[in-house]
Amino acid sequence: MKKFKTAVLLLGLSLFALTGMAQPTANEILDRVDRNMYSENSIVESSMTIHGRRGSRTMTVRTFAVGDRQAFSEYLSPPREAGTKMLKLENQLWIYSPATDRIIQISGHMLRQSVMGSDLSYEDMMEDHKLTDVYTATLNGTEIINGRPTYVLQLKAKASDLAYDSRRIWIDSERYVPLLEELFAKSGQLLKRTTLSEVKQIEGRWYPTKMVFKDMLKQGDGTEFNVTSIQFNQDIPDHIFSKASLRR
Amino acid sequence: MLLAIKLAYRNLIGAGLRTWLNVLVLSFSFVVIIWIKGIMVGWDHQAKTDMTQYEIAGGQYWQETYDPFDPLTLDISHALIPAEVMPEIEAGDMEPTLLIPGHIFPNGRMQGVTIRGIRSGQSIWKLPTEKLDTVVDAIPAFIGLLMASSNKLETGDLVTIRWRDANGTFDAAEILIVDIFSSNVPGVEAGQVYIPLERLEELTLLEGHATILSYRDPEAPRAELTGWTLKPKEVLTRQVDELIKTKSTAQTILYGILLLLAMLAIFDTQILSIFRRQKEIGTYVALGYTRREVVGLFTVEGTMHAVLAAIAASIYGLPILYWQAKVGWTLPMDASDFGMAMAQTLYPVYTIGLVISTVLLVLITTAVVSYLPSRKIAKMNPTEALRGKLQ
Known about the structure:
The complex is a heterodimer of chains A (about 250) and B (about 400).
Chain A: H1 2-22, H2 26-37, E1 41-52, E2 55-66, E3 70-77, E4 85-89, E5 92-97, E6 102-106, H3 122-126, H4 131-134, E7 135-145, E8 148-157, E9 166-172, E10 178-184, E11 190-202, E12 205-215, E13 223-232, H5 244-247
Antiparallel strand pairs in A: 1-2, 1-13, 2-3, 3-4, 4-5, 5-6, 7-8, 8-9, 9-10, 10-11, 11-12, 12-13
Chain B: H1 2-15, H2 17-56, E1 59-63, E2 79-80, H3 86-90, E3 94-104, E4 111-118, E5 139-144, H4 145-150, E6 158-164, E7 170-181, H5 186-189, E8 192-196, H6 197-203, E9 209-210, E10 212-215, E11 228-232, H7 233-236, H8 238-276, H9 278-286, H10 291-327, E12 329-330, E13 345-346, H11 352-378, H12 382-386
Parallel strand pairs in B: 4-8, 5-7
Antiparallel strand pairs in B: 1-10, 1-11, 2-9, 3-4, 3-6, 3-10, 5-8, 6-7, 12-13
């Protein structure tokens, strides 16, 4: 009987040790996500569908991005929006509207406005800090999301000047891509939810090609992003990320 | 002069229906002009009273970056309440208000609002702030009727409200609508949510901050406060003055047309009188009247239309104007669409100055219109006139 107890104890300890080795820390998980989601640079063509109360409208956009600091987007359709361009350099954002032939800098409080009536604000689009830099992450267990095993990470703001006080992210524990993200107010009220799906292997990395952003306080089906093509680590000329390219 | 008046009176009465038709049209002008001007004075009075009772009190200090027409700067438009006004605030003669931009989500729709932090114990406005003392789990809040009807909200409803604190971090909570008030001031109703000041300060990490300081006494001399802009009552009500001035100009055209019609009738009457009464004019001159006196006689006769009209207007117009002052005039369209302090029913206010100025306006205009055709008399040859020959 005594031998049996010792064997059970040893087995238990071994399992615990194995589990501890198998389960990465929250920061390690976020690092692996970053490696999947971020690249030196990328060229993305996507469509953005805004589901409103009066119907839906879809825009197609081509985006050139270098890291998470520089981005240049050009709206390709519909004709009403075609030619609208956005340039993001560090924490500054400019928009060019062909209808007025003017370049407007979106700054300060205007960053809090909605992008083309979507569920995203310019500020949401501008977010370029690494989550591990500004949030303290803790691993809250595992869950199954859409049939995929996920790690559930709880993120709490380190600084007091972040738009969202806390976040919860469900990360595919095999592919290391986020499948669901929830953003919370200081009071704990759920404000926004992002659902990521249609994860595809592109150039050796897993990448979600469909994202649905939803303001949880509003009715409606949110804003949908569909990545139609993505190329990583391309040769993007520097002149694209200049104000002069907005008028071209 | 007395003889001229007597003669003029006899001639007018003698003219019969023609005189009374002129008098009737002119008296109608009297009543309408006094009524329109009364409505304007009443509106001015009502708008300023309502603004005082619900919005501006006796005057305000605005935090220097506050601009009511620029909602994008609202979240930076606040500052610590200056120490020098604290005794006035403690005495209840000044009220701090903190304005924070936010959104409410009635029935899942997003609506931009201004969250107004206001003290529950205030007494300088007629707002139902005592209801903010209601003890509930959610944040007690009251709103204006305009806001309630546009968002289909009722007392007892729970609505989610979202705002950002001083650091820009989102926060959200439920508010309970504890009361709905009605004023005639759209600025304090449309898109405004009132919650306790202390609660808003705590939620936004802005303890001791305010956007507007409203004081009770408009007459007391006010000191300048560093970082704040003094807005006396007359500055805050300037918008009303300007709008009423614009409206008055439009109304002047309306009653100008009315007066023109009446004056046209009098002008015609005068022309006809001079044409038909040439022998009479010749007789006056033959009896020793100077031409100037004859012109005066005809001018008095014409002007007397206005005197008779004033008497007629007072007979039937006074009861009408009195009745209007009691029941008011209800606007045929929604007054809240005007975007400024305007009641749905306007009550005319008739001042002595208004009545006197109207009487003088009509009298002088009638005198001028009566005089103009009478000038022809001065050019008449009395002999020809006596013979009744057309000149």
